[in-house]
Amino acid sequence: MATDIGYYPDHCYKLRRLQDDGGLDPFPAFYLVDRNLYPVQQLMPNGRLYGEPLGRVELNNSLAPFRILAGADELGQIELASAIYTAADGQRYQLQRIPCPDA
After folding, report:
1. What is the pTM of this model?
2. CA 54 – CA 69 distance, rounded (Å)
3. Are 24 and 18 in contact, with CB atoms under 8 Å apart?
4. What is the mean pLDDT of the chain?
5. Which residues, other chains included, contact 79 with Cβ-Cβ below 8 Å and sequence gap of 6+?
6. Confidence class of residue 25 from pLDDT cuts 50, 70 and 90?
7. What is the pLDDT of residues 52-88, one digit of tens each?
8. Is residue 31 part of a domain?
9. Residue 4: inside a domain, yes or no?
């Protein structure tokens, strides 16, 4: 399992919450698959995702952070170089590249 730095829309990621002391939660909170953000509860034991995603990454043609939107509502932003997702409530998550689960 690679932990390459940076965000690439054609890869899949698990998102682990960054704690106040700089550590990471041991378990992911979200999965980012094909630009779709899923809560971890949607990953079935057989490795398949079910249900509708929470939001989708909106691509742009700049180095500005990518926004994750749920309709017109912004859920947060991904810093491209650091692969840090900052949710609208200020909580931060580290993206870690994983093999893509079946959607």
Report:
1. 0.85
2. 8
3. yes
4. 87
5. 7, 65, 85, 86
6. very high
7. 899 999 999 888 999 999 999 999 999 998 999 999 9
8. yes
9. no
Question: Which pair of tokens denotes residue 25?
Answer: 């939660």
What are φ and ψ of residue 42, in 5° steps? -85, 0
If one compares 26 and 102, the residue with the highest pLDDT of the two is 26
Sign of the CA dihedral with 64 first, then 68, 71, and 75 last: negative
Question: Shortest CA distance to 65 belongs to which of 85, 36, 94, 35?
Answer: 85
Calculate the CA dihedral of residues 40, 46, 4, 23 and round it to 10 degrees: 40
Per DSSP, 10 falls in state T
Residue 41 lies in a domain: yes
**d(C-alpha 3, C-alpha 68), whole Å:** 21
Asked if the structure places residue 3 within a domain, the reply is: no
- Domains of the chain: total: 1
> Which range marks the domain in which residue 78 is found?
12-98
| DSSP three-state, residue 71 | coil
